[in-house]
Automatic annotation (TrEMBL):
Superkingdom field: Eukaryota
Pfam family of the protein (one): PhyH
Membrane-traversing stretches: none
Co-factor(s): Fe cation
Name used for this protein in its record: Phytanoyl-CoA dioxygenase family protein
SUPFAM superfamilies, per database record: Clavaminate synthase-like
Coiled coil spans: none
InterPro entries found in the cross-reference section: Phytyl_CoA_dOase-like
């Protein structure tokens, strides 16, 4: 298996070492194993179940092959356990250290690839979208936390190592989705290592907003759920309003905040993004 730039969380403060920064800057990503323990995963799982949970606001995106990847998306952390998780130092402070500047919560989402039906995502960069949301610089990253084991069979992420150094690539229609220029991606595939990001539940991938990534459909009998939080540097707050928020104060919490918050479904203040008639709208809760 290719080197995955993997580190292991020991349950205390997550120190961002020089080697972590070097890996992130060179390759565009690092992995932190065991970032969430089994009890934290169980709390998160329970909080996302039921008609009063965030999953009530989920919507599906057709991948062009008759399958859908379902997601729910929100702009502000809010007061529930998912907000507590996004504010933990092991996510937020680590993101800040990797980017080298103070950050705020740009948005979070839950991506649900169900067994046998979960759809694919074409090659893209997050900044390929966020550039159009009035963010001037690619000073942003995403933390992908696996709620289930992620494998090639159930549609784990694939990344092109070091592709963030190619800069922002033009994005446009690729089938039924918006993705990176297919010709340019094809050339980058010839010279960069494609990595299948295989994770266990509780592992996390921190990746740069210009890192090219894709994922296949879930052809297995195992679902693939993931919790993602995007952080933006304070100095990079969008210059105009868009579907995601401008700079807000991020109050970071202790690393055990999920455990102390428990199963909390109080969705007030989250500003959920919904898809209606092909357009994105925000719903203040």
């Amino acid at each position: 298996m290719a080197n995955l730039n993997a580190y292991v969380y020991n349950g205390e403060e997550l120190e961002v070492s020089a080697s972590m920064k070097e890996d992130f800057n060179r390759d565009g990503f690092i992995i932190v194993r065991n970032l969430l323990c089994q009890k934290e995963l169980a709390i998160l799982e329970e909080a996302l179940q039921g008609p009063d949970s965030l999953t009530a606001y989920a919507y599906g995106n057709d991948d062009g092959d008759g399958r859908k990847a379902t997601m729910c998306l929100w702009n502000h952390p809010g007061n529930d356990v998912t907000g507590a998780m996004a504010r933990t130092r092991k996510l937020a402070h680590t993101a800040q250290e990797l980017l080298g500047a103070e950050v705020y919560h740009y948005h979070s989402k839950l991506i649900m690839k169900e067994a046998r039906t979960g759809g694919k995502f074409v090659w893209h960069q997050d900044y390929g979208y966020w550039y159009n949301f009035a963010c001037l610089f690619p000073d942003m990253l995403t933390v992908f936390v696996a709620m289930d084991a992620c494998s090639p069979e159930n549609g784990c992420l694939q990344v092109l190592r070091g592709s963030h150094r190619a800069g922002r690539i033009d994005h446009g229609a690729v089938g039924n989705q918006v993705g990176a220029d297919v010709g340019r991606v094809a050339e980058l595939e010839k010279c960069l290592d494609k990595v299948y990001v295989q994770l266990e539940a509780g592992d996390a991938l921190f990746f740069h907003c210009n890192l090219l990534h894709t994922s296949s459909a879930n052809n297995s009998d195992q679902r693939r759920w993931a919790f993602l939080t995007a952080y933006n540097c304070n100095h990079n707050s969008p210059y105009a309003e868009s579907i995601h928020c401008q700079k807000t104060t991020l109050r970071q919490l202790a690393n055990d905040a999920v455990l102390t918050t428990g199963v909390n479904r109080n969705l007030s203040g989250k500003d959920v993004v919904m898809k209606q008639d092909g357009k994105y709208v925000t719903l203040a809760l």
